[in-house]
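pasting Oxidoreductase for the record, 237 residues
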Amino acid sequence: MRPVPWRPARLLARSPQTPTARTLVFSVPGWPGHLPGQHVDVRLTAADGYRAVRSYSLAAPADGERVELGVQSVPGGEVSPYLADVLPVDALVEVRGPLGNWFVLRPGTLAPVLLVAGGAGVVPLVSMVRAHRAAALRGPLRLLYSVRGPDDLWYREQWADRHADFDLALLYTRVAPPGDRRGPERITARDLAAAAAALGPDGTAYVCGPTGFVESAADLLTGLGVDPATVRTERFG
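structre below
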């Protein structure tokens, strides 16, 4: 297998998602395309030759040389604060990818799909939502998205414009907006029960977020009778 090459990536645009999260759009000449759920490595090189590499999820389906990433700025981080707020538009970095062939949504999927996101873990899952919408797939798609509070919600316009092409449940863990009948609490079996039952034998669940969230959500799903072989996880932190 040939090694995946590094390619120059020029920053085209940056837009806010939350007070600390950004969408970054790059132009990457020679980009080979990717599947929803895949990620890239980003490499920064300082003037003295020091290099730092971090992985970031792709936030949109393949679109020519356009590559969209989601970056959550981590306090004290070496790379994420720079990418989120300092890297100038039109500047160059290097990217390597696409990477990861297991946590992906394959083209033409018709079986039920359940997406379970915690915080910034929604980034690769929104790529799956967008691909599902663009392909007008008939298979049922449901997203359960857990965040601390309304200010931490990524992709607000995506959820406001969802129409009837997928089901969405927003779960708040610390602060819930007015009118939210569930109230703030961590994800529970009650939140997942109906969606788990709807998966059936052919469905697949994708769970992404911080390690503790992913482990808890995956355990809840299998406790509800979902086959562990159909639960795919991606974690960070």
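The first strand starts at residue 6 and ends at 18.
Residues 37 and 55 are 13 Å apart (CA to CA).
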